[in-house]
Design brief:
Chain A is an alpha+beta fold. Chain A has 3 domains: 100 residues, Rossmann fold; 70 residues, Dna Ligase, domain 1; 226 residues, ATP-grasp fold, B domain (D-amino Acid Aminotransferase, Chain A, domain 1). Chain A contains 14 helices and 22 strands. Classes of the chains: A alpha+beta, B mainly beta.
Chain lengths: 448, 71
């Protein structure tokens, strides 16, 4: 096992990883920016290293400084969390070259899955269904026009170098293609430094269902069932649950088999998630693979009773998986709600500020993963996730009832949050009957 | 008649896609702010000519700060 693990992140995920390290009695190193001097994760680690100024580029995204912090503190492993450097193959490679264990997959798996066109090609070759679309980046608008009849309208232009919905454009008619292509190219260049676009069929009201997989360095590979994450805004999730409600067992089995085949095709090691879109007829298509721990991992932990972050550390240390597939049993149901410092009444615009008061719930079947406390400054420089509420129940009804009560018992002062919006989602009849889809939030189903 | 364009959120100036003298239509982004990993355009409230840009890339602006002036 490791001597000490450097946690290259902040907020709730840094605290979550520190907790897992403590469970394994490993030493811990936190890193922080000037904006995070007083952040809880800094206090909770054995050692803490200041990386640099508040902007992420000069602190949490600076590979040299993070590696240097590990060297200076004697850490022999780095856990990247999610976001920041977690999906940077260069960072994973830099860790390896510095003799540090990277708690995640090989740089090559990160690189291949990070290039969305390459990922699609590799998955299709492994027999994983992909959305009908271009085989790779398209050269120009003429090439897009030539492909359009085969793919069918509406279609969507996506940035080959990006994710998170940035640079995406839906196109309904062939005459709109040229303008949309120009705009999406510009946005892709600005956001990712790579103007390449690919084109796909646009799916109407699909569900987002993903499968958690876990591989070890000895060829072991298991899945931990699915999560349903259709409640999204700007292609980012707000509510997740497991198991996925109202999905035919045959579809679930198909998803799990496809995910395992995809992960096996790239020799995947450590925790990863294959994301799929599922249409109204139960057909599913690979969307992307996240080569890291995900924000919503607690949902899976609650229904399986397993600790994914502890397992990440074990596997990164070269140990075999502690679980065989048959040991992984899904019990009950779990739901997660993400509380962001955003104003739902203003189209989820950021709401920076200082947490003046904070009340979070506790009780049977309730788990809170928080990155903030009273007095925490919520900076413009980072992701606005404040904390996650997770509820578990013997069945979905109980998990949802507990979540509704938890949301009602939670209050935050000083910044606007997604709390009132989340309460409306959980109470909504369509959500309650398990009929969520990815376009619900933006179509105004839950009001403003 | 000139009109001040104000930031509607707190953030860091990510891009300045316009310059003094540019013609803009209502709804065109005059500057783009970055806040909490989101890019948020500050749009021209009406058609006109950009008279002055008062911010630079990388600068922090507060909700309500004037970022540009429209002629």
């Amino acid at each position: 096992m490791f001597r000490a693990v450097l946690v290259a992140n902040r907020g709730e995920i840094a605290r979550r990883v520190l907790r897992a390290c403590r469970r394994l009695s490993l030493g811990t190193v936190a890193v922080y920016s000037e904006a995070d001097r007083d952040a809880p994760h800094v206090r909770e680690a054995d050692q803490a290293v200041l990386l640099g100024p508040a902007p992420a580029r000069e602190s949490y995204l600076d590979i040299e400084r993070v590696i240097d912090a590990a060297r200076r503190t004697g850490a022999d492993a780095v856990h990247p969390g999610y976001g920041f450097l977690s999906e940077s193959w260069r960072f994973a490679e830099a860790c390896r070259q510095a003799g540090l264990a990277f708690v995640g997959p090989d740089p090559e798996a990160i690189r291949v899955m990070g290039d969305k066109t390459e990922a699609r090609r590799v998955m299709a070759a492994a027999g994983v269904p992909v959305v009908p679309g271009s085989a790779g980046p398209i050269a120009d608008v003429a090439a897009a026009e030539a492909l359009a009849p085969e793919i069918g309208f509406p279609l969507v232009l996506k940035a080959a170098g990006g994710g998170g919905g940035i640079g995406m454009a839906r196109v309904d008619r062939v005459q709109d293609l040229a303008a949309a292509f120009a705009g999406a190219t510009r946005r892709a260049q600005a956001a990712f430094g790579n103007p390449a676009l690919y084109v796909e069929r646009y799916l109407d009201r699909p569900r987002h269902v993903e499968v958690q997989v876990f591989g070890d360095t000895r060829g072991g590979l298991v899945h931990l069932y699915e999560r349903e994450c259709s409640i999204q805004r700007r292609h980012q999730k707000l509510v997740e649950e497991s198991p996925a409600p109202g999905l035919e067992p045959a579809v679930k089995e198909g998803l799990v088999e496809a995910a395992l085949a995809g992960a096996r095709a790239i020799g995947y090691v450590n925790a990863g998630t294959l994301e799929f879109l599922v249409d109204g007829r139960g057909r599913f298509y690979f969307l992307e693979m996240n080569t890291r721990i995900q924000v919503e991992h607690p949902v899976t932990e609650e229904v399986t009773g397993l600790d994914l972050v502890v397992e990440q550390l074990r596997v990164a240390a070269g140990e075999p998986l502690s679980w065989r597939q048959g040991d992984i049993v899904l019990r009950g149901a779990a739901v997660e709600c993400r509380v962001y410092a955003e104003d739902p009444a203003k189209k989820f615009l950021p709401s920076p500020g200082t947490i003046a008061a904070l009340h979070v719930p506790a009780g049977e079947g309730i788990r809170v993963e928080s990155g903030v406390e009273v007095g925490s400054s919520v900076s413009v420089h980072y992701d606005p996730l404040l904390f996650k509420l997770v509820s578990r129940g013997a069945g979905r009804d109980e998990a949802l009832a507990r979540m509704a009560a938890a949301l009602a018992a939670t209050s935050v002062e000083g910044v606007r949050t997604t709390l009132p919006f989340l309460a409306r989602v959980v109470a909504h009849p369509d959500f309650q009957r398990g009929a969520a889809h990815t376009q619900m939030v933006e179509s105004g189903t839950f009001g403003d | 008649m000139s009109e001040e364009i104000k930031a509607h959120i707190t953030g860091v100036v990510f891009q300045v896609p316009t310059k003094a003298g540019d013609r803009v239509a209502a709804g065109d982004p005059v500057i783009v702010l970055e806040s909490m990993k989101m890019e948020i355009p500050v749009e021209a409230p009406r058609a006109g000519t950009v008279k002055e840009i008062r911010v630079q890339e990388g600068q922090t602006v507060q909700d309500g700060d004037t970022v540009a002036v429209l002629d």
